[in-house]
Amino acid sequence: MARPTGEYRGVVVVESLGSIGSLVSSPWIYALVAVSVLLDIFLPVLPSGVLVITAATAAAAGSGAAAAGRVPQDVPDILVLTLCAATASVAGDLAVYRLAWRGGARLDRAIARSRRLTTAQERLGGALARGGGSLVVLARFAPAGRSVVSLVAGAAHRRIREFLPWSALAGLAWAAYSVALGYFGGQWLGATWLATGVSLVALFGAGAGAAYLMRRQPRATEAS
Length: 224
Known about the structure:
Blueprint lengths: L8 H7 L5 H4 L3 H12 L8 H17 L13 H24 L2 H10 L1 H15 L4 H8 L3 H11 L4 H30 L3 H31 L1
Helix pairs in contact: 1-4, 3-4, 3-5, 4-5, 4-10, 4-11, 5-9, 5-10, 7-9, 8-9, 8-10, 8-11, 10-11
């Protein structure tokens, strides 16, 4: 007798997620996501977004097969996954912030030699002083933006109460967006690599949009 295709979707996706399939279907996925998100502020090439989206797609596969009663019990929990990614993001921000705070004159000279870092320092300082840290949230989505903002905030000795709330908001926004992409992509497109690919394109698109908005920020500041 032919087997209904929808009933086994959750099992199939968890077993076919390639080289990280065994980790996606175990509690170690949370540790892997946390380490990747924590470290990608130092190494932006780490695939933290890929891991979060893949795990969320697996979670969508499990919920999609719930009616058939064939859901693996060890698919990732989207709430835990979101909190794990957001917490690791904030921890990474604070690590770079503290390192930059203690960087001393050598780091100040390095920033002075970089036009990009100097511009970021001026804009971030003004934004945090006015209580408008949307730049921190935008930077979390932009490629390497999180690294630059955390470095500049620490080097400029911005107060932690000015930086930390925006870092937390940025981490939560990025984590929630990434998990939502993987989860709803899996729900709408099926638990396949197509869903993961489309979700990644949407994540990279958000990064490109954030980078564009950050470049336009100086014009808005000058106009005001």
